[in-house]
Design brief:
eight-stranded mixed beta sheet, alpha/beta, 35% helix, VC0802-like, 12 helices, binds magnesium ion, binds adenosine-5'-diphosphate, 407 residues, binds aspartic acid, Carbamate kinase
Length: 407
């Protein structure tokens, strides 16, 4: 008998009607002879609502208590879905993360799964039950409730699929698959039938929020076939698999973008050994993640040093740099919070030259100034002004012929 893990996101369980519809879908898959484990998110808007409540009490709520609060969202959904299944005559049982024992580290609000005890789930499946598990949450070795970061229910589902050796992990959401770019920004975006783990990982890392990054890492590591599909409309969705299972490789598979970046520059720093370390050392110590880095060619013994961080960390990073600049005798610190990153992704880039220059030409033709560039084997990213985000993404989408073809 096949084991399938099905995950339903916030919009898919956003009302009582939706929860009943999900119960129908789950029951349908079970009736086809599969063992089903369902992972659900909080009802749409609920995690935001709970976060807002916490911030009305304190500007920096305690991270342990925040996890106790946020985990309630998913707990509501598991109980309601189990009731909906039972009302249809389907035996079902719900479990919170700590009841399953999804053991995580103790990094509250961004915990990582260490181990899953699948004994209770297997026992329930053996008795013909549908098992409903709360996404996004776990428990640390001291018994504290933890959460896995926004979008974390995807990771719960894939980790359970890996632990159970499931035949497929199905991520049901509000779009019918992974598209060449966010269909909310480019209506001409095309649904992809297949994508490699590596491409999906780049897309997710570069800003495509359709899957949490950790979930793709897990799927790749344990070779879990991952399918993204709609909970609203029928269809095969997008299958994410290893590279050898994808026959024909496109040059470019997609465009991702990230609105959450900000850029900082230390202007006129002495061009000496150790400067990069003295600038980025204190940034790292403050737990600020750095994305792109550029150091200009020096002239007159001075150089400029630029890097990007998450927009939430901008003010903190700026304050640190002002101090560092003084110590280094640099001329000044400048920053820009209104930038975005647009990235082209595709494993086919490995064997095709000229993609970067075609990308730069397309952007130049629209008068879009590129502020930073970074490349790796299967992606090219540019930083541009925020106001050019939509235009830039649409321009590249059509320049690389990614739109729907009418058949
Ligand atoms: P859920 O609540 O089901 O977890 P999410 O909002 O986390 O759903 O993810 C689905 C959303 O991801 C879509 O509504 C879409 O706007 C967005 N998205 C961004 N990039 C892509 C992409 N390349 N393909 C499909 N969806 C994308
Ligand atoms: N409810 C959590 C969130 O909104 C987790 C998830 O939906 O994956 O981020
Ligand atoms: Mg999500």
């Amino acid at each position: 008998m096949a084991v399938i893990v099905q995950k339903f996101g916030g919009t898919s369980v956003g009302s009582v009607e939706r929860i009943k519809a999900v119960a129908q879908t789950v029951a349908h898959w079970q009736a086809r002879g599969n063992d089903i484990v369902v992972v659900v998110s909080a009802m749409s808007g609920e995690t935001n609502r709970l976060t807002d409540l916490a911030h009305q009490i304190s500007s920096q709520p305690d991270s342990r208590e925040l996890d106790v609060l946020l985990s309630t969202g998913e707990q509501v959904t598991i109980a309601l879905l189990s009731m909906a299944l039972q009302a249809m005559g389907k035996p079902a049982r719900s479990y919170t993360g700590s009841q399953v024992r999804i053991l995580t580290d103790s990094a509250h609000n961004k915990a990582r799964i260490r181990e899953i005890d699948d004994a209770r789930i297997r026992a329930d499946l053996a008795q013909g039950r549908i098992v409903v598990v709360a996404g996004f949450q776990g428990v640390d070795e001291h018994g504290n409730i933890t959460t896995l970061g926004r979008g974390g229910s995807d990771t719960t589902a894939v980790a359970l699929a890996a632990a159970l050796g499931a035949d497929e992990c199905q991520i049901f959401t509000d779009v019918d698959g992974v598209y060449t770019t966010d269909p909310r920004v480019v209506p001409e975006a095309r649904k992809l039938d297949r994508l490699t783990y590596e491409e999906m990982l780049e897309m997710a890392s570069l800003g495509a929020k359709v899957l949490q990054i950790r979930s793709v890492e897990f799927a790749s590591k344990y070779n879990v076939p991952l399918r993204v599909l709609s909970s609203f409309a029928p269809g095969e969705g997008t299958l994410i698999v290893s590279e050898d299972a994808v026959l024909e490789q496109a040059k470019i598979s997609g465009i991702a973008f990230n609105r959450d970046e900000a850029k900082l520059t230390v202007v006129g720093v002495p061009d000496q050994p150790g400067v990069a370390h003295r600038i980025l050392g204190p940034i790292g110590q403050a737990n600020i993640e750095v994305d792109m880095i550029i150091q200009n060619v020096g002239s007159d013994g001075l150089t400029d040093f630029t890097f990007t961080v998450h927009r939430n960390d901008f003010c903190k990073a700026y304050a640190i740099l002002e101090k560092v600049a003084q110590e280094l005798g640099a001329q000044e610190v400048s920053g820009d919070e209104h930038i975005v990153k647009i990235s082209l992704v595709g494993v086919g880039m490995r064997s095709h030259a000229g993609i970067a220059s075609a990308m730069f030409e397309a952007l130049a033709n629209e008068g879009i100034n590129i502020r930073m560039i970074s490349t790796s084997e299967i992606k090219i990213s540019v930083v541009v002004d925020e106001k050019y985000l939509e235009l830039g993404v649409r321009t590249l989408h059509s320049a690389f012929g990614l739109e729907k073809t009418d058949t």
